[in-house]
Design brief:
Layout: H1 14-20, H2 40-60, H3 63-69, H4 72-83, E1 107-114, E2 117-125, E3 137-147, E4 150-159, H5 165-172, E5 203-219, E6 225-236, E7 244-254, E8 274-281, E9 290-295, E10 305-311
Antiparallel strand pairs: 1-2, 2-3, 3-4, 5-6, 5-7, 5-8, 7-10, 8-9
Helix pairs in contact: 2-3
Length: 319
């Protein structure tokens, strides 16, 4: 699911970025989160070893090693993301325009653990293998989850200090106190492993315009949920679309208006305050997507609504 970025911090998941070629973004963490008796250096070495195993598997395209070095929920999320685009698993995982950064030349500035989750933070020239001139100093955070006695790679985050001069000033002063806040600390929660989805008949994308409402849409297949919170979102449908009927439920909850706030119109070319549009194609590179479903009532449904997206020879002709 696509999520809006906060103003203070831009985040990216390396695996999702690799698959969808999304841009790179960021956060950081501090050593004060370490529980006794583990030391920052011991934890840091363990985490670095885990990351290097994961990175080596990515670079050498060793799928079995990559899977063993990666958190189970991340493995399944990557699988579902790839097959939902009707790409070949796991081949598409390694068809990347960037390389995972090498951390041996970076300075470790923090390592923390909460429950079965951990982070390690690095400062220096974070190199993704993109030839774009001189590489400035920035921050890289690597996230892990524990599986038995081992730490497994989960995801990475990148802080562009030039884009956040206030954070850059703190880093220059070796002041990392702000990194202990809830927004940056390990969560202590390991996400559940999603259901494995098969390769779909069609690639699906859904756009929800939800001005003044929080809209939640769930496909009956159990693979996909979209949430649009007073925004317009476009998501890849995890699990894709099947030929024929694709059932879903949707709820739209009105959002309270701030005191004294005036009604505003959507800030994009979407002129309808609330609508759902679904697109389908069998091949994103070769075939234009068809608008197989569009629902734009004068007002959103007051209660949970059940409906279906039909993918047929007729609906596939719509543009």
């Amino acid at each position: 699911m696509n999520r809006p970025l906060s103003k203070a911090t831009e985040c990216f998941n390396v695996t999702e970025m690799i698959i969808l070629m999304r841009p790179l973004f960021a956060i950081l963490l501090i050593t004060s989160l370490l529980p006794s008796p583990a030391s920052a250096s011991d934890l840091g070495r363990d985490l670095e070893k885990s990351y290097n195993t994961w990175r080596s598997a990515m670079v050498s395209k060793q799928a079995s090693t990559w899977q063993k070095a990666t958190a189970p929920h991340r493995v399944m999320s990557a699988h579902n993301l790839i097959v939902s685009q009707r790409l070949k698993w796991p081949n598409a995982l390694f068809e990347v325009p960037v390389n995972p950064p090498e951390i041996s030349q970076l300075k470790r500035v923090g390592a923390g653990v909460v429950g079965a989750t951990a982070h390690a933070a690095f400062f220096g020239k974070v190199d993704f293998g993109i030839k774009a001139g001189d590489i400035p100093d920035n921050i890289l955070i690597i996230h892990y989850t524990r599986n038995g006695s081992s730490w497994l790679y989960d995801r990475s985050q990148f802080v562009n200090l030039a884009a956040h001069p206030d954070i850059g000033a703190l880093v220059a002063a070796s002041d990392y106190r702000w990194l202990g806040s809830k927004s940056y600390a390990p969560s202590g929660i390991v996400p559940p492993t999603p259901k494995r989805c098969p390769k779909p008949d069609y690639i699906g994308h859904i756009r929800i315009a939800s001005h003044g409402y929080k809209t939640t849409l769930k496909f009956r297949s159990g693979h996909h949920i979209s949430i649009a919170d007073d925004a317009i979102t476009t998501d890849l449908i995890i699990g894709g679309l099947a030929t024929g009927e694709n059932r879903f439920t949707v709820t739209a909850k009105p959002l309270p208006k701030a005191k004294g706030a005036k009604d505003t119109k959507p800030t994009t070319d979407e002129t309808i305050p609330w609508s759902i549009t679904v697109f389908a194609t069998s091949d994103m590179q070769k075939r234009a997507a068809a608008k197989v479903f569009h629902y734009a009532p004068d007002t959103p449904p007051a209660d949970e609504m059940s409906s279906a997206v039909w993918v047929t020879a007729a609906t596939l002709q719509r543009r």
